[in-house]
Amino acid sequence: MPVHRWLGILLIAGAGILAYANSFNGPFIFDDTPSIVNNAHIRHLWPIWNTLQTPNSSVANRPIVSLSLAINYALGELQVWGYHAFNVGVHILVALTLFGIIHRLARRLQYNQRDPAAGYGLATVVALLWVVHPLPTDAINHLIYRTEQMMSLFYLLTIFCVIRAADSDQPRNWYRAAVIACALGMGSKENMATAPLLVLLLDRCLLAGSWRELWRQRRWLYAGLAGSWLMLVAAMWSGQRHDGIGFNNPALPAMSYWLTQCDILMHYLWLCYWPHPLVLDLGDWPVSLTIGEVWWQVLSTMLLLGVTGWGLWKRRWWGVVGTLFFFILAPTSLLPNPGEIAAEHRMYLPLAMVILLTVMVAKQLFLHWSAWIIRPIDRQYLQFGGATLAVLLLVAATIRRNEDYRTSLSIWQDTVAKRPMNPRPYIGLAGAYLEAGQPIEAEYYLRRSLDIRPRDCGALNNLGVAVAQQGRHDEAMTYYQQALSVRPLYGPAFRNFGAGLANNENIEETLSKLGDAFHIDTAALVRSHSAGEKMLRAGQLDQALLEYEKVLQGVPQPAVMHNNLGVALMKQGKYPEAMVHFLLAAEEQPDFAAPYYNFADLLLGYEELDRAEALYQQALALEPQLAEAHHNLGYIYEVRGLMEPARQEYERALAIKPELAEAYNSLGILLANQSNWLGAQQQFSLALEKNPQLHAAQANLEAISQHLAGQTPATESPVGQTLP
């Protein structure tokens, strides 16, 4: 391998690591929560079909990205640095692939006939500037946007393999690799759909002398590339994304969306040259209704398209670069997406084309104007110095931007400051305050969000959570109801509203309230529920289930309501009836952790340890952060005499939920049974500190204190096991 190539690879990889070295501890934010943290599908690698499907998230229809998340989880569960390491690694691989493509394109387009190594220099500078540019920080730090990264990697690999085949004695292997890369890209993000057409145009422009020659030599390649569209069709067919993308949205006509995209394109180009301000969420970008609002942006876009088309027709290098730019942006710019009109991560790969064009134009202008006044050796020094200075400035800007992603609070505070009229960042900032246990601050920002968009069901639901954490439960219920009046099937508000109602021990009153809230035929539901109870007591299980199904027919989110009714029945001591509802909830929604956990609690009360353990494990597979399940699983291990696994589960529960007093008490019992009296005393004290009303901990602390004072036999444990 030539020394220029090795040097370029080392510089690019080193610069990428340097620029993102401070990004590995950034938290999961925004869409990361539903797509990674709460995504049960990535918590196992088998069965593979279930892993590849992740409905209702940012990776729906994107099975290859889902698989990458599952591998991340298998290696380190939710340790965030592993996900960052993957994203940074992919970013560097994209830069290296870009390096390979530019160097080969430069040679094919005869970039510098007198100096064959000049192509390596051009490729190194462009890849270096791109890998450290701060504009892609959104795609790298916002972890779920690896969709953009992985698609870009496979897009470039497809192009590279086709170009590389032209210089190979065995081109078929490279063609096979191109088809595989294209298929993987189709499974990463829908933007990959343009890749086969782009490769066809580049082939005709750079490789083939005519269309007939292209078809004769590489028709099987294009049959394979076209076949990769089947991967995209299959992924979209099996996916379940409901985000309103398409041309049938009356709230966002296609023409308005296209006019707005011309405005956004100019903004993107500005950020390429002056990357400030960079913003996580551009959801408040104004929609342009008439061409008069964005006339110069539309004119500029048409001019760029015209120049690009003419350059491609004449087989000029800038025509090829412009075609790459527009083809990569085309899907998101042409297909209306009301949920994301503008997003900086869309410029992840197109930025490379802007940098390539800029570097080549700048070099030509510099050589032209300096030819008569600067010696050739001095021109080389000036070019090297200019490139080095640009790279260092961009590295500093990227490191600074990474700091904004250091915590959830810092990135949302940054976004609120830059887009004060965008309601979504206020919701994000409020969520960060809720996670930090600061509901008063959360309430303030949620009300700011509702000032801008009063009927936002997410903000209303979160406002209910914030005021509930302050003890204002009746007020919280009104906000949940307001959220459900806007969107009756909104799951989080329905769960919170149902959980509040489940505390009511009168089931018929609960059903009555549900009927009032959701306009349900309450009388019919109560009659069916009563009939089901009678049949269940009479042992007529099948008929009882039919009646219970009638109760749930008119209720949104039936799995959630089954679970909530099961909790209410369990509190009444009606355990068989509660079990029926937990079973129905699990059947209705197999990836819902709550019914597995609640059913396990019931079985634990009946001392069915094996079945309870299996259900706790299933609940934790779906929701690893369920501290109570870890605690109860530890109790089961302790009863069986498995002290070390029990201790580990108690400690996991406390790591997730430090205020869980029962876990301190259970850990104290375990330590006392191992004759670790001082350790046990400390745990009981912590339990009482967290919950002064925990009588079991109070009794255990008194018993251990008496034991340490010598008032009980030294060979006996002063405390005993109690059900968690």
Key descriptive features of the protein:
724 residues, mainly alpha, Serine Threonine Protein Phosphatase 5, Tetratricopeptide repeat, 35 helices, 71% helix, 0% strand, elongated
Shape: elongated
Residue stretches low in confidence (pLDDT < 50, at least 5 long) are 513-523
Alpha carbon gyration radius: 31 Å
* Alpha-beta classification: mainly alpha
In helices, the fraction of residues equals over 70%
By DSSP (H or I, 4+ residues per run), the number of helices equals 35
Overall pLDDT: 84
Give the total of domains.
3
| Beta-strand share of residues | under 5%
Q: What composes the largest sheet?
A: none
Terminus-to-terminus distance: 65 Å
The tally of beta strands, per DSSP, is 0
Please characterize this protein's 3D structure.
By secondary structure, this protein is mainly α. The chain has three domains: 3-240 and 248-399, no CATH class; 422-486, Alpha Horseshoe (Serine Threonine Protein Phosphatase 5, Tetratricopeptide repeat), CATH 1.25.40; 490-589, Serine Threonine Protein Phosphatase 5, Tetratricopeptide repeat (Alpha Horseshoe), CATH 1.25.40. The longest helix is centred in the N-terminal third of the chain and has 29 residues, at 80-108. The chain is built from 35 helices and no strands. The protein has helices at residues 3-19, 32-37, 48-52, 63-76, 80-108, 118-132, 137-141, 146-165, 171-186, 195-207, 211-227, 229-238, 254-273, 295-313, 317-334, 350-370, 376-404, 408-418, 423-435, 439-452, 457-469, 473-486, 491-502, 507-518, 522-537, 541-553, 558-571, 575-588, 593-605, 609-622, 627-639, 643-656, 661-673, 677-690, 695-708. Helix content is 71%, strand content 0%.
